[in-house]
Amino acid sequence: MGAGFYAFSRVFLKKVFWLAGGVEVIGAEKMPKDGPVIVASNHASFLDPILLGTYLPRMVSFMARRNLFDHWLVGPAIRGLFAFPIDRDGDPREALRAFGQRLGEGWPVIMFPEGTRTRTGKLAELKTGVGMISTRNHAPVLPVYVWGSYQSWPRNAKFPRRQHFRIHLGDPIYPDSFLAEGKKQAQEKVVGTLDERLHLLEETAWRGEEPVPLALPEPTPELPAPAEE
Description:
Helix content: 25-40%
CATH class: Alpha Beta
CATH superfamily: Glycerol-3-phosphate (1)-acyltransferase
Shape: globular
Strand content: 5-15%
Distance between the termini: 23 Å
CATH architecture: 3-Layer(aba) Sandwich
Largest sheet: 7 strands, mixed
CATH topology: Glycerol-3-phosphate (1)-acyltransferase
Number of strands: 7
């Protein structure tokens, strides 16, 4: 599928999200205008990659578990937004190569450095892979925080509910500025700086909101929702 279908998908999905409650994007000017970018976002819901693919200023790509492409709602949306499938139980080097290939082609690529969807609505500990990928590919890391996706479709809900969404973009992190300290130290600096900036975005996004916005039931089997990312 090409850029034309991507553009059509974005127009269609913007209408869907408008009916669902609307979306604000704060700090869109902070996204680098060209070249590879790792879009490092919090992860609260299956809606996150769809929201980011629809509302970020540039066309983006992202990797998604292969079974997500079969999901009744998520599958058609991510196919139109240049997602590429990975096998969660496969060789992780294949995923890294695919990620690096997209960056090498100049794409912004979405990454969820927490590794899975939050159970609480708040940020979890970040994995270190984002530091390795950014330094290896000399790609800036753009901190992004999506607010509202947890309230709309948390991991123990079968279907999304109406909700207003906000997407907060932070200042990019340039890994090459840390490389003089050594590759390992640079990777750690990228992850540490990203963690600080995501927590600042989280604090801004949740300001004035209830700490736990929904009284949710205990987790239930996610059918027909797909398996965890």
